[in-house]
Amino acid sequence: MYELRAVDKHFPGVHALQAVDLEVRRGEIVGLVGENGAGKSTLMKVIYGAYQPDGGEIAIDGKTVRFQNPRQAMHHGIGMVFQEQSLIPNLTVMENIYLGFEDRFVQFGVISWRSMAAAAREQLAKVKLDIDPAAITSDLSFAQRQLVELAKVLTLEERIDGDLVILLDEPTSVLAEDEVKLLFRIVRDLTKRASFIFVSHRIDEVLDLSDRIYVMKDGRIVDVVQRDDAEVSVIQRKMVGREIDKEYYREQKQKPYNPAHVLVSFDDVSLPGAYHHISFDLHAGEVLCLVGTEGSGREAILRTVYGLDSCSSGIVTVKGERITRFSAMAGVRRGIGHVPRERKVEGIVNGMNVYENMTLAQLRRFARLGVMNVPEEKRLATRWTERLGIKTPSITKDCGGLSGGNQQKVVLAKWRSGGSDVLLLDHPTRGLDIGAKEDVYEMIREMSADGVGILLVADTLEEAIGLSHTILVLKDGEIQKRFDGTPGSKPSLYDLVHHMI
Length: 501
Fold this sequence. Notes:
This protein is an alpha/beta fold. The chain contains 18 helices and 24 strands. Strands 6-9-10-3-11-12 form a six-stranded mixed beta sheet, with helices on both faces. It is globular.
């Protein structure tokens, strides 16, 4: 029903898509996997109409089509559920669902909110979401917003005569396991109405949900795999073009930290509603991981160290100095860097280029009498781009246009180039492919060896175990257990889960 034939796409200095062939059949779920920078995002934008191909053609039911914009694609039944979500948080659920298509509810120049709410309930029922259509979108959980996104796309059924193709861009990246299962169950039910293209870095999920899997590398489709014939290790090898290092978390490079050099200390620190009576020391060269479920207090502890939250009691010390006034600016001046979970929202500044993002936390260093020394900024950015292997056609490219893995490297370079010796990593590998994860793990080992103290909230328990010198397990805002992470004596998954729940 939908087909790409030898599609090409160029950007300055980059051949992003090279003769890509892809087909989607009715009622089918097609998986799409590849490293960051492999071309997945570009391919999705071509399908969705945000980019126009430079060569090749697109066909729906055998007829060639060409979209000038996403609205034209929507009129042909192409919808997209975005990883970062496209909903406007201060609007109601029903306003988001029918945003741009309110005409059907207008009578004598006035919107009938009752009619819109009734129509929205029908759409929400398709995704089995029982919420008030008049609820403010920002009050919903991430999983609920994800289903509202899907309900919004399904309104295309009412506006077109043909079949739907729905693009799912990393829809599970911040969902809990039970939420993922619910989403997958809903998507499978919806194959009676639509076909899906599912993009994810979690290959096990792609194998679970998809009928066929397309593997991309360097802008090309390198293989098409049937689900029954697919193996995770084989797909990973095709994605990165090599065997995955058995030393995935670089445990052999884990060096002892310096127990005599304390960088950050918490002494009986509490923040009402977040955590209580927390005590720990972070040493130079130590990777200390905070493990727990959502709401256990781990993220709030990171925010306190950085200066975004102020504790109500206890003593926080950074490099021997007791902290009495908390602010992120002061945290940066103390040499604390923060790599946030939402890198596109909090980590980088869209619209600013690579070198501007990289030097953002150290502008005083490059300012002379109120004028920026741009050549010096560029020299620093060039050195770190080469050192970290950041894939970009130029350091003047908009950072928002880079792949997720390369954006994360820019964020890490921002702090490392500024000399930060305390680094707070909040899910640093979330949304990254296996190759980009390996790069981040390598950087963590290098920073640890250089004496940087790292406070980590990992994306998985395996990651926490593999990377850490020390693990603190939190539950309901309190430390339940401390584990030593020396290679050869690391805790098991069961050890952690036993104290988490």
